[in-house]
Every structure is written in structure tokens, then in C-alpha cells.
Amino acid sequence: MNTKLLIEYFHKLLPLDEEEMAAVDRFFKLRKVKRRQFILQEGGVSAVNTFVIEGCFRMFMVDENGKEHNLQFAIENWWIGDIGSFHSEEPSRLYIEALEHSTILQIAKEEQLRLFVEFPKFNRIFRVLTENALVSAQRRILHNISSTAEERYLDFVERYPYFFHRISNVQIASYLGMTPEFLSTIRKKLAKS
């Protein structure tokens, strides 16, 4: 199975022994996803944790006016999922869509719990992943409430330069909480200075 990238990812957090590496092969399921295919839709329960081997995804919600709001993008070596729905087993308000043809590894909640019992090291690894996601979410909230649109854009450019060839300006604008036209205005202003 194509779990080599995931095993390398886990090794960076905590080294795995042979038995633990074999468990990754056993518990994670490989899945191919076509461009524009959803791996989660509003109303469904997020029953799996997803690691991106190849490709690009976006997680978004649609408000009562039909406007999309991007919450997260994920590319190779990133995780994506509705953590609230995953843990509560309640219906999600979110969608997760492939922006490119993609290959992912997924683990179902029941399997993840079994993995934690059989191999406690994974419990620590996933705790670190959850803590990192919380830190990232807090940072994004603070940045969104205390920064100008231009500052948010410049921060995005600095943190995620590899997204610009893979994600449209419309998607980036949605993530930054602005219209594509306003993003275009900011980019033109910055190009002149």
C-alpha cells in the first residue's frame, strides 16, 4: 500500500517501530478521488480522518445566501476533516471537495480508536495533530479580527506560496474573507508599490 508518505510524516512526530508501521498499512485505506468530487457534504457525518498523499482539497461552508466560505485547504502531507463532526458524530455543516485528482489515506473513527488501544503511540501522535490544528485555528481567528485585508493577503502569500498555482483567486479570496474583486485591487496596489 502507498503509506510510505504517511509513515514518514508520523516518524517526524514520533519514530515508529516495525509493528507500528505495519499497523499504518492495516488501518489506513487508500482512496482515489476525482477533481470536484466530495469526500464530505453538509448533513453527512465526518466518519474518517483524511491524509492527503497527492492532490488538493478545500473545506468550506455555504451560508443561508448560498455564498461559499473556505475554511481550509489541504495538499500533500496535510490532514483535512471536520473535527467537530468526527468527534461528536453529529451532521456536518461543511463540504470537503477535491480541487484536483487526488489520492488520500483515510482511517475510520472506530479503526482509529482501535489503533490507539493497540498502539498507544498513535494516541500521542493524534493529540499533537489536534493541538497543532487548534493553534492554527486560533492564530487564523486572531489574524482575521486584528488585521487588514491587505495584511491577511500578505500573510497568506508568505505562509502558503505553493497554493497560488493550484488554487484560484476566487478560492483564495473566499478563504481571506473578501471578494475576488477586492483581492484583485489589493494585488494591483501591491504590484505598483
TrEMBL record:
Pfam family, one: cNMP_binding
InterPro entries: cNMP-bd_dom, cNMP-bd_dom_sf, RmlC-like_jellyroll
Name of the featured protein: CRP-like cAMP-binding protein
Gene3D superfamilies: Jelly Rolls (2.60.120.10)
Limits of the Cyclic nucleotide-binding domain: 31-116
Species per Swiss-Prot/TrEMBL record: Flagellimonas meridianipacifica
Entries under SUPFAM superfamilies matching the protein: cAMP-binding domain-like
